[in-house]
């Protein structure tokens, strides 16, 4: 049985519950997505509660480590577009938990995203920094504005950012490339180039596709080239080897 419930729910029998089943023809119900049921949870990962998305992802990562599936230096995380934002926020909040990060065409500047192309359409999920209250939500997790030197925050247990590849495309008119490029410049300056003896030895690099957009309609050869680059980077950073 797959159960979805609020975190820290009190198991005292007081909560309404929906139990769905099929019950026949040797068919088992597996976890799936249902638009109609999002009304029960749709506000729990947006606007003022956006941090819940990052907390859930971090919790999933911690489980993979605590259950013995992997260890932080062997864990690579990957996401694109809104998932790129997720990756950017999580490496800021828990750089010690990951060994490698791949962020595709992510929304990284949460204070100005609404000023470029169709970014204004996303304010229903993120909020808008032009409003004082919503600015307060966004500044707390905006990847661009929360790059920190973790070894200064926790000198007793020095750590660094995971090996990171930020991927974008020069003709992306959905999430414009400035998001990835500004974050790349900020990370490289803050963590590496501005320090003589920076403990940041994990690489922070970018990959920019030319004559390409947000992803849809990209030629097959470009898809192959990008996949080869990002997974070769991942394998190198995690010390993985390929089995033929």
TrEMBL record:
<dbReference type="InterPro" id="IPR002470">
    <property type="entry name" value="Peptidase_S9A"/>
</dbReference>
<dbReference type="GO" id="GO:0005829">
    <property type="term" value="C:cytosol"/>
</dbReference>
<dbReference type="InterPro" id="IPR001375">
    <property type="entry name" value="Peptidase_S9_cat"/>
</dbReference>
<dbReference type="InterPro" id="IPR002471">
    <property type="entry name" value="Pept_S9_AS"/>
</dbReference>
<dbReference type="GO" id="GO:0070012">
    <property type="term" value="F:oligopeptidase activity"/>
</dbReference>
<dbReference type="InterPro" id="IPR029058">
    <property type="entry name" value="AB_hydrolase_fold"/>
</dbReference>
<dbReference type="Pfam" id="PF00326">
    <property type="entry name" value="Peptidase_S9"/>
</dbReference>
<dbReference type="GO" id="GO:0004252">
    <property type="term" value="F:serine-type endopeptidase activity"/>
</dbReference>
<comment type="similarity">
    <text>Belongs to the peptidase S9A family.</text>
</comment>
<dbReference type="GO" id="GO:0006508">
    <property type="term" value="P:proteolysis"/>
</dbReference>
<feature type="domain" description="Peptidase S9 prolyl oligopeptidase catalytic">
    <location>
        <begin position="45"/>
        <end position="239"/>
    </location>
</feature>
<keyword id="KW-0645">Protease</keyword>
<keyword id="KW-0378">Hydrolase</keyword>
<keyword id="KW-0720">Serine protease</keyword>
<protein>
    <recommendedName>
        <fullName>Prolyl endopeptidase</fullName>
        <ecNumber>3.4.21.-</ecNumber>
    </recommendedName>
</protein>
<dbReference type="InterPro" id="IPR051167">
    <property type="entry name" value="Prolyl_oligopep/macrocyclase"/>
</dbReference>
